[in-house]
Amino acid sequence: MTQQEYIIRRKLNIIELGETLGNISDACRRMGVSRQQYYDIKQAIKEDGLEGLIEKSRKNPRIGNRVLPQIENRILDYSLEHPTHGQVRVANELKKVGIQISDGGVRSVWLRHDMKLKADRLKRLEKHSAEQGVVLTESQVQALEDAKEERQAHGEIETHHPGYLLGQDTFYIGYIKGVGKLYQQTGIDTFSNVGFAKIYLDKTGITAADFMNDKVLPFFDSYRIRLLRTLTDRGSEYGGANDAHPYQLFLHLNDVQHSRTKARHPPNGCTGKTQPDDLQRVLQGRVQKEALQKCR
Predict the structure, then answer these.
(1) How far apart are CA 286 and CA 279, in angstroms?
(2) Would you list the domain boundaries of the chain?
(3) Which of 59, 111, 228, 272 has the fewest Cβ atoms nearer than 10 Å?
(4) Model pTM above 0.70
(5) Which helix (H) or strand (E) covers residue 292, if one does?
(6) Cβ proximity of 137 and 81 under 8 Å
(7) How many helices (H) and strands (E) does the chain have?
(8) Domain spanning 166-292, CATH class
(9) Cβ atoms 230, 166 nearer than 8 A
(10) By the 8 A CB rule, do 67 and 76 touch?
(11) 3-class state of residue 227 by DSSP
């Protein structure tokens, strides 16, 4: 039984008890109510039926503390023009043109329109540009490009077809007595998830270039697919101050663009996740091959 049902049931009991006893005063005394309450209940039933017994709130409705529609539209327009500006700066810039709004008011508008984060406002700009076909300003284009680079630096990449982007990374396997340090060059096509791996004894620009020449490019050439770009971290095997770096020279000769993640940012995640699995497959295949040779 809900609270409303309990209240209605109690009020009906008062009326029923008065009719049963034939004495309203005695019934009100037993139920702990006044005669005026008894007559109010009876009058409510007469006018509205059982719905009249529902408890009605006497509180005045609270009007929401919201900004005016024209100010809200001005905030949305400004956020579309400058999506990277924070709430404090937006409020300050609007005050310069005579619009009084607090930074909290700006944030409340953003929350209502699901654009509290800079990434949300940038997505809104991209959607608006695609739907309306408007020409973006230089600052808007720069903001979108910076956001794209930041996503790539955190492992979020855009890829549209095979060969569009290859993620490449170096994985340190460990030290083997009598052999030395072992490194695994790993590559993965970010669209098709086709992976490549090769083990080397050192980590240099020559091994990185050899991996591309021996494993990656021949595969794409066999399918007549052109590799457009590679994404690596900022390791010395993928570039340096010297213009004659072997890896960068190899990419230049094969007309492949090269992008690198930002410093002090997470590593190349598109290949880092696959490296332990690739290593396990390589070692498992080597063990199976040696076992077959012994059996023969």
Answers:
(1) 11
(2) 3-53, 70-153, 166-292
(3) 59
(4) no
(5) helix 275-295
(6) yes
(7) 13, 5
(8) alpha beta
(9) yes
(10) no
(11) coil
Please say whether the beta carbons of 177 and 148 come within 8 A: no
Query: Is the Cα dihedral 263, 264, 270, 271 positive or negative?
Result: positive
pLDDT digit string (tens) for the chain, length 296 residues: 677 777 788 888 888 888 888 888 888 888 888 888 888 888 888 887 777 777 666 666 555 667 888 999 999 999 888 888 899 999 999 999 999 999 888 998 999 888 888 888 888 888 888 888 777 777 777 777 777 666 655 555 677 889 998 888 888 888 888 888 889 999 998 888 888 988 898 998 899 999 999 989 999 999 899 999 888 888 888 887 667 888 888 888 999 888 887 765 554 555 655 555 555 555 555 544 554 454 44
Sign of CA dihedral 201, 205, 208, 209: negative
Q: In which residue are the tokens 């059996």 written?
A: 295
Q: Which two tokens stand for residue 282?
A: 């390589």
d(CA 243, CA 143): 30
Residue with tokens 């457009």: 228
